Batch of 4 targets.
Target 1
Amino acid sequence: MNDLLQFAVIGFSTGAVYAVLGASLVSLHIATGVVNFAQGSVALWAVWQTAALRANGTLVLPLGSVALGDGPMSAWPAVLVGATSGLVWSLAAHLLVFRPLRRAPALGQVVASVGVMLFIQALVTLRFDRDTMGVDPGGLVPLPVLTAQTFTFGGATIAVGNLLLAGLAVAAAAGLAAYFRFTRTGIATKAGAEDEQALRLMGYSPDRLAAVVWGATGFLSGLTVVLAAPAIGGLDPVSYMLYVVPALAVALVGRLSSIGVACAAGLVLGALQQILLFLSTKPWWPSWASAGVGDAIPFVVVVVALFLLGRGIPERGAREAGALPPVAVPQLRPLSAAAPLAATGIAIVLTSGQWRFSLVMSIVLTLVAASVVLLTGYLGQISLTTMAFAGAAGFALSKLTTNAHVPFPLSILLSALVATALGIVVGVPALRIRGAQLAVATIAAALAIESFVFNNPSLTPYTGNLIRDPSMLGHSLAVRQGTDVITLRFSFMVLVMVAVLLIALARLLSGATGRAFLAVRSNERAAAAAGVNVPAVKLLGFALASFLAGVGGCLIGYSRGQLSTASFTVLVGLTVLAATYAGGITRISGAVVAGLAGPLGVLYLFCTQTLELGKYYTLIVAAVMLLRVVVFRPDRALMPQGAARVRRLLAPFPSIARRHAPTAPAGPPADAVHEPESAHAG
Amino acid sequence: MNATSPTAETPDASQAPDAPAADRTDDALAIRGLSAGYRGVPAVRDIDLQVPAGSILALLGPNGAGKTTTLRAAAGLLPVLGGSVTVLGTPIAGRVEHATRAGLCLIPDNRGVFHRLTVAENLRLARSKDGYGPALDRFPQLRGLLNRRCGLLSGGEQQLLAIARTLLLRPRVLLVDEMSMGLSPVAVQRILPELRRVADEDGTAIVLVEQHIDQALSVADEAAVMHHGRIVLTGPAAELRQDRARIQRAYFGD
Amino acid sequence: MPADPAGRDPAPASVPTAPSRPALASAPGPAPSPLLATRGLSVRYGGVLANDDVCIDVGAGEIVGLIGPNGAGKTTFVDAVTGFASHTGTIELGGVRLDSVPAHRRRRLGLARTWQSGELFTDLTVAENLAVVVERAGLRGVFDDLVGRRRRGRRTRADPAIDPAIDQALDLVGLAASADRRPEELSLGQQKLVGVARALVGSARVLLLDEPAAGLDTEESAEFGRELRRIAVAGPGVLLIDHDMALVLEVCDRLYVMDFGRIIAAGTPYDVSRDEQVVAAYLGSPVTP
């Protein structure tokens, strides 16, 4: 019992981070309707900033750096500057990204916040290096700020610092909650999220009100993480970015509307993780579950939150805001399919070594990205699990080929079916939620799969999951032969398989299945009223998408000879989503772009080898995606509007026109006069 | 566009759109030659309306005539594509901030009350020195509802709240869009006299967009009828009330 | 247009009621076994009784009007009948109980509706909007898409002439020429008609039309009324909600008047329109075209 108490209090350090990040996420959702995946990245920058200041007083800026004083900065000023850097990043994200997107559909907002998340993280890796700071980032640690005192309570050793962190979390959440409840500006902020126009008519500026919340949450998140980091452990350029996943889970427990519940859930989650960590060292604990349990909990929390708390998490506004990216339905013409196929074949023959390998990776990534096009572009379900599905199939492939000796084409089919089953399991939550919340559920699922399966030593031995080379009818299709890193046979096997699947996908998307997907995407209520079984269609979409991703995962696995978990991390998954969105998430050609630009693809190789810009790669992808989301918005069609208007002006009712042919009324377009209604929706 | 020339139907030549009157200094709201619409395409053209302080104008017309567009442009929610809107001499260049600062308030047709806030919170949003006491004095019915979430109020109560909240801002010009939408006629009959009182006692200029013609004319001083984005008829409300055939003709645009 | 159901349906308690409500007139002779019959249908939204003990019959080939002021609960009734609002009481279509049947199955059983705000699939063409009703997505659909022969020409975006029913339905509402247009290219009135066509297609037995004529002018509205007659002659029953009294009085066989979630009067258009109380309180614009 004492042990449990002791570990629970230890867990308050991470718990405080979850609590404040979660309270911040809820606050931002209340104020703006945005679910901000970048909350952890903002805090990540703050931690590094504080560490740099305390090492030698360097203030690192996105470009350049400033030396504040000659030597290390003292603790509290450094903490304050670090937390303020969180405030600045948060405000910048508001002004440059989220404010322009305030009427964009959920997909645009989620993708944008994922873009900000990746962008800041990539910038942390780039900027906090030896050149800028003058110290080795590997040697940097978050120095303690809070007291190291302990006391004994009921036999348990309690660290005062951890209690202070918990107190800070509670105070931060209470402050945020009081702001929304008792202050006029806080009330106005809530009102602005409901009806921005009505608030403007009362003389408020919704943007300024939102900015207050962005700034405050950025500061509080930065402050908490900076103070908690020494207790949590070392410094790396990723970890706090992904703290947003448990924070999102507790925000969902608070139904994205209760700051207090989110804070409490965060503290409990932190404590629970430590207790489980402690229990997993016990001899009776099953060895298969000894790793990754802590990271799997957020997904469990999300699922429980979604199912026990019911469907009552309101999306902001009852109606769909803004328009989704327009869809380009694939037109299958023999030539348009054959030409790129032939070109790719020739390119495979003409290249060799590394370049051919990256070309084949591009082909495989195209398939993975095509699954994103199907699920997110066509069906409108924002899933961040794609790479995890691919990895799961690769994992199954390893087991099937090494343990069960399943022969080649069957091995891919069975492994992809494993991914399909997993996809359906993850898709079940999608029946109850949509938009940003589905993104939360799926990223939690991806993290759980990554930690519990890929990084679990009892499932994935340190020697790796080997995959036997494919062969068919006695001919080896192995990726390597002698000194050849990638054989022609393997390359063409991949090309043929991907081409067949893409053609099948094009047929699906241009047929009844595609129409049903688009109907669900554009209006679920109306789809149900048109006789479409919406849950079944969604599950079908998840099944098909995870099948495609699964085949992609198998091909990646075969290309390595073993399952390399690094290919399937959450980060890679987010990068693929970013690349697909940048390429055009509603068209198969967008998947091709994503394949070329995705990790280890042709453009990646070009970027890293030829231009030697490898370390900028994630930054570039994130920046391109942000530009695509914010500046070149796909939901703003440039051309067709004018033409449509002309036709509308000239298109009175046919039945009326027949009777009044000479004097057809050419009034103002009907929708123009009725626009106020739709304008309210934002 | 088959609207008749407005002058033919307009009894008061000084308010005819084609002959803009010399500035009347007591006009709280002056709309001159206004064209406004969406995405650069005008939905209303050449609108001329002047409303003196303490006077009520009923803006009538069939669905889609452009009444809402006119109000939204006057409130700065839509860019002005031509002409001008001034509130007590201050031009509103398509900016809401200008309009609210000049003392103009618009109650939109969705009433603009915040459903997730309580009645008290809604009232607090009006930045008034005296708190929201005056609103409760004027509409005592709201007193018992202060802690109720606005989304649970009836349509009539919501409209009452919207008006009460707006009046706390002491508007010099008040635009009310489709006040009676979703209200029972009985509820409308109780709210309209309140607006008359506001005009008479506070000297507020009011523009009322209404479907219920008779009720609107009963409280208005002047009336204007829109059709196909233009004003096709203006006149004193009492006169038009006696001559419904003219309104009816204006409604059908012939 | 109210966005919030709670806002749309005022609390009956706090709004003054009409001085004396007309007694519930017994509806004159609906068909002995109506196609659609609701009994004791009640819907509650967060403490507000939005529909209270509503009993409505719609017979085959019959056009039944449901009128009443905004916020009376008419749309709520349609939501409940078509499976979009949970309710108590019973709903029968051709003698089959539908109370616990999900919305999409009710549509396949022949209960079709339109929406006040159109709710068309903006990414699909007009014909494709209708095709969604006729087609069945699912594993079978996947199989057909992958290996099925494409009947009647290519089944592509520009030409989803899968079923002649689509052409027929578009013809009925006079929009055959717009089959390949996007909804956004049509006027609001035409968009409403696409909604009607989408409700018509695919063996609809009862149509619930929620303000289908709201975007139409007087002439168009009258033309729509004639189209509605033609549709009803072909067999399906129609429940028509509209504010255009000229249209309602012209085309409906019977009328129900709803206020504060309850049916307060029922009868022939002649009876209802002569009911002074109903006219004064609920139909009440003095300029009625």
Target 2
Amino acid sequence: MTLQEKLALLSDAAKYDASCASSGTSKRDSSDGKGLGSTEGSGICHAYAPDGRCISLLKILMTNFCIYDCAYCINRVSSNVQRARFSVEEVVHLTTEFYRRNYIEGLFLSSGIIKSPDDTMADMVRIARELRHTHHFRGYIHLKTIPDAAPELIEEAGMLADRLSMNIELPTDAGIRTYAPEKNPDEIRRAMGNVRLRKEELKAPTYRGRKAPKFAPAGQSTQLIVGADGSNDRTILQSSSRLYSSYKLKRVYYSAFSPIPDSTAKLPLIKPPLVREHRLYQADWLLRFYGFEAEEIAPDQGTGMLDLEVDPKLAWALANRHAFPVDVNRATKDMLLRVPGFGTKSVGRILSARRNGALGYDDLRRIGASVRKAKPFIIARDWRPGSLTDAENLRARFATPAEQLQLF
Amino acid sequence: MHRIELPRLGTFDAWRDAARKLAGSGVGFDQVSWCFEGTDATLFDGAQPPLPDKATWQITVPKDFPPLAKLLCASRAPGAFDLAYRLLLRVSDAPSLLRNRADKDVGHAESIAKNIRRDMHKMKAFVRFREVTPKGANRRQFISWFEPDHRIEELIAGFFVRRFGDMDWVIVTPEVTTRFEGGALSQEAVRSERLDLTDETEKLWQTYYANIFNPARLKVKAMQSEMPKKYWKNLPEAELIPGLIAKAEAQVAQMQAATPTLPPVRAARVLDRLHHPDLPPRDDSPENLERELRGCASCPLAATATQAVPGEGPMSAALMIVGEQPGDQEDLAGRPFVGPAGQLFDRVAAKVGLDLQDAYVTNAVKHFKFQVRGKRRIHQSPNASEVSHCRWWLDREITQVNPKLIVAMGATAALALTGNAKGILKRRGKIETGLHGVRVLITLHPSALLRQPDPDLQQKQMAHFHEDLATAARMSVQLAEDN
């Protein structure tokens, strides 16, 4: 098989991983002329595919051979897809040559599980070591971690890579037992716990005041598949907020279950629930940056699903109109963050701008807030919503009927 | 009217020098017209007074102004230099001006700056190098053609220097050519035409691009808003886009229509080996107990906690210490008594001479129960049903270790060991006979001491805790002598 054929196969197999972030790691560069690559905090998307997803990293599998049989996965042992395996040199060649041409920020290496978790992890670590030590590669490396692998291997992986990730894929243990019977949810949680502890250990200052080497400086992340099992959004969001609080994850990615070649009869192929995925991402942001709890965003009553027609923050505001209108010139930061149409940046700007005098409607527009969305919920110097806040047709003014087809 | 001509390279430095002198001599913003070298004077420039030699007074600006001015000077937006100068005059009087985004000038400047940042970001993303290394060269050589919207070549050069330090490269834009050769950067303002270049590696890159695309999630608009068509002509992958879009639907339909296949023969063999690992036979050994405990899912706590935390210590211990449940740290580490409460317990035990090396420490409930509050996990006490479910494990630990004395710390441990959780403050320090027929010494839980808000009460309870552990230490010495 040629390198090109392998690349086709092993990138096709990797595309179901949503993560392609290259941001938030420690700063490095090669201005000393002895290496290749740099990382400067913010990530860069070097291309976009027609699926609207950013291409920032060379996202490939080391091999798509796998001994596990996860129903949702293209690489499961019971699938008849063609199999291939990269050599260490091939991965290193692709990564550095792509990087030199400014196609990518680095490598996201994942793998099917061959022979044993330890063997697989050892091979992946060897690729990262080769890149870092032999080729002085200073770009971004994201390694998928095999939860059951030996702690020494995960330790070395964390020292070489910017980010480690382990995919839980299904939000409940019951779901994992049904669709990924060889995966052990306890083992994944324990491995995530270890990564968090290791990160915290190395963050503590040493006795000599030396800086300890950083362990996975861009943190760890995971992915949940949306729409494969029957979990509702409430379950998914509770699961995410548990993951954020327990293991200090940088990100939980949501991946709408999308058709795979040679699928199993266990999981019928649906049109990927893209709107639902989008709403979950919005809700995830509310959890991380806006002080919302999962239970507030996806209330218990009803189906436990997010509203597909309006975004989750607006949905919360519409359901909690007694808390509005909010006076932008007096309200606390916590409350401003809950106003639909105000992002974290706008709120920061409102807080510093209002020291110079009361803010009016146009000031808010200039600040960058989405005033059209916010106006029923706010009071400004020259604006009062009157009965608009409690208007019966308020929801209808925002909702654009979203059509989510279940079948093709 | 002053007419200031700015060079194409070094624009910002020239602007700053001129602006300093003008502002320092009290020249108003409507008295200056800014333009590039080589442009003709307009009719309205009128008579041109000479630029003052030096400023009459020193202009000071807040430190957020120069970076903003630098971005404004790179912009092709009409009036960007005037705006920068007007802002300079205003910030020297009002240093906090730039923090007020509601101000019209500031808002306008920030929106221009945002465009420049975006332009720079897109240049970092969409420059594509093509290899042109001649035979025998000791550094590899690459060249690129790019058309930025604004005059960002000077602002962006550092990024490529930091990134591609070990190779030589040239980035050609219509107005400026940037070279990095042998580790030295140089820029030259020359007009250039588009270069037509290719590179063998582009085939591999196109292969990657075509295969990482998921045809089931076609979102062409989302792609175009981030990668506008104007950049496509320099991106080797962009020529594939129309074809990928056209084929997407058929590709998905094909996946849908395909009937599930029979698994390959090896699948059954592989899975059989995975599902029937060679485990040692089940017995009552501590290793086996731990393995079984880790697999316990008899209450809902197992699905939310990280792991079951087994007890620790010698199997022959005469003294057993039972806490409530693992906390945040114990849950992550998989070991009992490693968190703040455990550390307090260790300190007090060391003080009263209780040797923990000889004691078996464990918890009444083996999984951590918590509630998520923002980014933290808040401890929740286990309820009676969880305690009774988990008693099965505690029973087995007691049977295996067969201690002479058990210290029950807190209400939950008391409940698990004596069947009664009430009145701990009254029962503390006393010996009871537990459900297992073993003597149980009741005391407070160290985390209750840590959480006690009243300092007086905390001191009193701390003294009690000392006292109780001292009793345990005395008794365990006695028990050892009895043996």
Target 3
Amino acid sequence: MKWVFAGLVAFSLIFGIIGGDVAAVSDAALSEVQNAITLCLTLCGIICLWSGIMRVAQTAGLVDVLAKVFRPILTKLFKGIDPNGKALGFIVLNITANMLGLGNASTPFGIAAMRELEKEECTGEYASNNMVIFVVLNTASLQIIPTTAAALRLKNGSAAPMEILPVVWITSLAAVTISLITAKILSKQRKKAGVK
Amino acid sequence: MNVSDFAIPVIFVFVLVYGLCRKTDIFTEFTRGVKEGISTVLDIFPALFTLVLSVGMFRASGGLALISALLSPVTNFLGFPGEVTPLVIMRPFSGSGSVAIFESVLGQTGPDSYAGRVASVILGSSETTFYVIAVYFAATKVRKTRHALPSALAGDLTLWILSGLVVGLWFY
């Protein structure tokens, strides 16, 4: 991620100079910090709401029930995960939220899952293979109905906002499959290179 | 009306009623959860701030148009609509940024054109990759994300290559 950060900032200066509009880049730096705070405050409310719900669900044992139902499938994807651990339950909540298109809920569930994975697999400053697989599931789209895209299509006068559904399913499925295969292959290679 | 509209109140009520049935102190537990939520936000805030700042600067620099122009030989070769290239680049970085670009593409070409459909598929089939990786790992002590980024980008690249192709096969 350090290269992404450096790249973005360096290229904005370079492109700013090429395009003759460094002032815009400078203005953006000052206004974006404000946007970051606003975004964080918005997120704060949503994350608190879902963390509250999540905590109740966890204490009441609901998370464990969910984990039990999906255990057979998920233990195949997440090799070596503790089948009775908390991580599995949060992974189920996160995936469900993603499929329903509750992007805001999936973040607190996902973070809880990452923390539990960290506790269970304690790999220090290195990501474990299961963490990578879980993150990759979240960087791909699992959403069944792409509500944002459909709503914006409708707003812009589409005759059939939902006609893209089958194509979205095909392409998202292909993308997530390729991501997971890549993760599997790379996890082996990096292991050989001496990273645990 | 869609599933997402129902989801929040239904889940909320269901979890609380389930908690009551299991004799959980739902009020105390909920408030504890909220407290944990605050600390989660504090944990992810630095990563979020950094990403929003650097992506915002990049957008303002006009670099998107330049990169899109440089990529036009590749997109022409793939039969990918050039108007949609900025969306492909912005999508992994920023949700609000990509929605803004998406709307301008729809405004230019119309939602039911080839480019409009490809843009819709891109927006509907992907997530903000960099945001997810930054925020999820920021909540842990992990500093070496290993193969997370290359694997995630392999998926985004697949989507970029396939979207134009599959839209072409499906609709035309």
Target 4
Amino acid sequence: METYKFDKSYEWFERACKVIPGGVIGHKHPAFTVPGSYPYFASRGEGSHYWDPDGNEFIDWMCGFGPMVLGYNNPVVDAAAQEQAKLGDGMSHPGPISIEYAEMMVKLTKGMDWCVYGKNGADITTWCMRLAREYTGRKKILIVRGAYHGAQAWSTPSYGGIIDEDRTHVHFFEWNNLDSFMELINTYKGQVAGVMMTPYHHCIYADQQMPAPGWWETIGKVCKQEDLILISDDVRAGFRLDMAGSHAYFGYEPDLVCYSKAIANTYPISAGLGTSKLKETAEHVLFTGTFFSSMVPMAASIATVKELKRLDGVNYMMKIGKALCDGLVSVGKSNGFEIIMSGPYDIPFMRFAREKNFMLKQLFSGEAAIRGVIFHPHHNWFTSCAHTEEDVKKSLEVADIAFKKVKDKYGSD
Amino acid sequence: MDKEKEKELVKSYLYLNAVLPQLEEIIAYDAEARELTKGWNCTIQMHVPGGAGVRFVFKDGKCEAKLGAVSMPTISLRIPTPEAANKMIENTGTVIPMIWGFWNIGKLGKFMKLTKLMEKYLRPSEEDLKNKDFFEFHTRVKLMMAVYGMKAVGEHDTYVKGIVSKVPNGPMEIKVLPDGPVAHIVLDNGKFTVAKGPAADPMVVMEIKDIKLAYDMLNANVEFMEELGLCRIRLRGHVGMAESLAVVMERIGLYIS
């Protein structure tokens, strides 16, 4: 099988470095993949595939880091967006579509009574934190160590530009460890405004962890007892476990739910939903941004939800994810490797059982990328409704070659 | 500890545990330095009580730098505070250390000459850098200083300690290709061990394309993320660990230039 070259990507990157710090900003920087074995830019996409500036075609198991849920350039979603674009997008008032959008989200999301809209997940998580503080009159926010809630100063996993005071009132506990949670609750009795958690633990560079039996039940109970606001950060998992919210899937009852990523099939929009008890307080916590009320992404989101329902999207993504995950475990085994897949089938994280440092995974992922399959070496992957059984078949064929390359260099288990 | 005191403390660790230990390399490389120490069989140490310390063990024409102080060296320069140690090394004030082993005053005089000689390698002239051999040696010394500096900053800078506490344990190896210097640093629950040469089972390896790029990287003449994208610096292994430890290395520049 012929392998790809990325000459144009590198040319573009050198050009980018002159005007963009680091050439590419944030988590899409080549350094977080395997530089030299991945494209650095995407020129166009269609369905579950995209093409880079060199014309190389890829099966994309990253789905734009989550937002692509129906396929790139989905005709139904794009038609709805274009129809709205003809009417107008960011005008001097919100459009009636903002009400339709909010009504849809409220109706869809279990236990929620109102909805606000922003652009990114971090807009919503940060606002929810402020809302919890305003409602309770307390300062402390508890979050799980290693969880990602956006790149704001209070939550970024990076270091630049952070001062101690940014996190003075943010405290960390361990996932699935009730003792560490209760220790914070008891230490800061009467000071905790809220608890922000993802539905399951999707940390980077490590296996994903599902909630232990009784975990959510106890967290919910303690939050009620202590009158804390429970914030469900469903930005990554939202619409991939349950259309009613991942809290419906796991059976907990948050006060606030944060969405972004998958809710509009790559159009930029996020949503915050809350229960009625917080509605009045929400009016007093300013939430605004120049582009928050743009209407095109709302039209796209409404169309996305309709399509996901029509296609029974969550079940399809799970099914295709299971085929991929089971296939990788099996192909890995046939090459002498134990492969660990963690997390939900449609948001999987892969790891070689024997390694801690990702060198095998990096070689595996790089060898797959130069043959047209995008697996991320360090981050969880995503499936979409656009992925096909043919995509899975081709990906497993490529994976077989990639496993052999790993075996050649590092040996099998 | 207030910020100013912490700054002096970290700086003293950098000088005594990262800069001065490079004397070992310089004595091995520089003929004048070797001549000054010819026939020595002794241990000379500099230390701040309860703080940074370094000792140089001279034996069989070689010098080995070791971190920390011992109780009975041949000569000991006991410097009362980190501030005094920094002033002494920067030559910005009069510091009279308490000296043990005064009867070896001749050696001490030569030793002080050696530390002056270091200047040539640590702050080289443009002319010296044109010499390929000198350039390579200077870059090697600077790389080792940076790696040893990571330990000094990583263990004593409060801000960095916060970062280090979240970094997985294990070795990070830094090597200059094709056959340049190699060193590694091992993190174990907030404590660092530094050594020359490759690591046995590294968590992450940083490979720098050549000695020129290593020089440019260490002198902040290039942008790290760009070099990663252009594959001139490569990371293999736990990239998150390297990302965090790069912050530790960058922090050295806040204390010493």
